[in-house]
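ok so for the tutorial part 2 we go from a plain amino acid sequence to predicted structure tokens. step 1 is just haveing the sequence, like this:
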Amino acid sequence: MLLRKMNQQLCPSPKPDLKKTFQLPEELHSEPSLDKDSMKPNEDEEFEKSLVPSSPLCSRSRSTITRSTTCNANSSLTRTSAPAGYTGLINLFLLLCAVMVLKLYLGLCAGVAIDSLSLASVFPNFSPPLPLLIFPGIVMLLTYRVELLLSQNKVSWDNALPCHLAIIAMVLTLPVLGLRRQDHLDGLLSNLLICVSYITLAMKLVSYVQVNKKYRDEQIASNNNGEQVYPDNITLWSIAYFWVSPTLTYQPNVSYTSSIDLKVVLYRVLELCMMHVMLRSVLLATPSVVAGLLKAVEDEELLVVIERFLTLSLFSIAVWMLGFYLVFVSFLQLTAELLQFNGRKFFHAWWNASTMEEFWRWWNLPVHRWAVKHIYVPFVKSGWSKMNAMLAVFLTSALLHEYLISCPFQIVGHFGFVTFLGQLPLCKISEVTTSKCGGRVGNLFMWGVLMFWNSVG
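step 2 — the prediction. this is what the tokens look like for a chain of 457 residues:
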């Protein structure tokens, strides 16, 4: 049931039916216009397509995951939309079966006991510092005040920019200084949630500032002619709604659904409760597996090392899948339903990706859209080459991953940064694998990276 629901999304209809709660992303209608610029060809989408390497067009039809011809394998590297279906999840199931059989066999040979999971409590013991809970509201008020003064021509952009940079710097610095090292799972998860929320806040502030500056520049260029969105959008309601909405890119005109379906809300709440208990149960069992792996390495017991590594890999992919469902299917859809937010496509069918490049573009659409709109496009428009703009996006992502590891754990290192840099050769290897062996092998390679690379990290 969990794997079947992973390929579907909530259908934003005025009176949703629980039987139609999920729908394939490719079957959804196109999202309604959220601002005046969406009435014309989206410039950001054109830049986004330029991120994909080009190859000669193939006239022969192809299956996305299955291998048919060399032309089909090459053309799978240039897809800008994810294919529908469950083939990628079937590949994951086959890979899991193979790993579990090998793990059990090695465990019997080495005399390793079968791991058992203890069920975590429904209510986690979260106790975040109070100042860290209050500070985001203060930040939003400060940002709103600066933008209001800009809209009233009471301050110049040259004076407002340092204020915005200082606010964003404070947002990223406060968790580093305010969090403390935790020695239990719920404390670590509390630190992680705070860091994720502060990174999300910083990204939203960047979007809010950039979009408003774009509208100011367009207003000046048009000499106040034509339809005006700015400065009517500079309101407390607008920035507060953007703060809690399930998107990272600011849009002045938001499209709403007509009503809130309480049945869907209840269903999502129950999902959240179930998913977070399952996720924390797996995480609670992970330290004993890591300890067993380290002890086996110290004792030079090769069979135990392999068995413990395979067990850790199974736990790693379980955490990944449960975490993805918890955030992108349950939490974001619940937030969208409560806020009547109409844009609900948060991911493509990334499980069908045949290359790592496709996976990174499809699995997290809010972050991908933000990176394209607020890093890649501005760099290209400023005269940077597309390769340098892509490098800027990649380095930003690597730094954010490092932040999400070092800050919650309160450690000084480069684990997340180095691990993310390792994606560069993996992306190239996956492209070569897909072009030589076909999309199915490329998809299995992608699942192998997700399962084993995180365990290595």
